[in-house]
């Protein structure tokens, strides 16, 4: 059953790839091809592994949706609950929340850097292949300047991220 579901997932990725290919969205085409290759390479021999991962994700999603749909407490229940919760516990919860937010922001920063690196790699490889045919093109020179600026930005953001990670 897991093999059938994996094949269905690969078919869905292929359909998305066909749709995006018509739109000529090169970055999305590249990403979908990488996803397909990753799914085939990593899970083809053990489709149960991805089935378990997806099952866990869906279970977590159901838990989050159930928690979000719980009824909101009225003012009386809130005041009783607030009187029971000590100041120390609120401080701990506040600190935990701050740490969670910080971790979430760090995860987002890392994801952003990974995406930026991926985009840079793709654009660099594309320009390298074009550069071999016409090194003097103004468009290639302009793209190389844009890539250098992108590389400088990426390097700066990595250094800033590393600095904050080590605090």
Automatic annotation (TrEMBL):
In the UniProt record, the gene name given for this protein reads Stat4_1
**Alphabetical keyword list:** SH2 domain
Q: Which SMART domains match?
A: STAT_int
* Entry keyword Protein biosynthesis: no
Record's InterPro entries?
A: STAT, STAT_N_sf, STAT_TF_alpha, STAT_TF_CC, STAT_TF_prot_interaction
Its source organism is Thalassarche chlororhynchos (Atlantic yellow-nosed albatross)
Q: Which Pfam families match?
A: STAT_alpha, STAT_int
Indicate whether Transmembrane appears among the record's keywords: no
Q: Tell me the ranges covered by the STAT transcription factor protein interaction domain, including all copies.
A: 1-71
Q: What is this protein called?
A: STAT4 protein
- Which BP terms from GO are recorded? signal transduction
**What molecular function does GO assign, one term?**
DNA-binding transcription factor activity
């Amino acid at each position: 059953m897991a093999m059938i579901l994996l094949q269905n997932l690969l078919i869905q990725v292929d359909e998305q790839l066909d749709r995006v290919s018509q739109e000529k969205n090169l970055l999305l085409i590249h990403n979908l091809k990488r996803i397909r290759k990753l799914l085939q390479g990593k899970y083809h021999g053990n489709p149960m592994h991805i089935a378990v991962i997806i099952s866990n994700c869906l279970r977590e999603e159901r838990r989050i949706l159930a928690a979000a749909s719980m009824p909101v407490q009225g003012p009386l229940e809130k005041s009783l609950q607030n009187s029971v919760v000590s100041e120390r516990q609120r401080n701990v919860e506040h600190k935990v929340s701050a740490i969670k937010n910080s971790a979430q922001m760090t995860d987002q920063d890392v994801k952003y850097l990974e995406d930026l690196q991926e985009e840079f790699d793709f654009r660099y490889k594309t320009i390298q292949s074009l550069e071999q045919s016409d090194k003097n093109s103004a468009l290639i020179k302009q793209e190389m300047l844009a890539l250098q600026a992108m590389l400088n930005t990426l390097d700066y953001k990595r250094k800033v991220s590393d600095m904050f990670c080590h605090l």
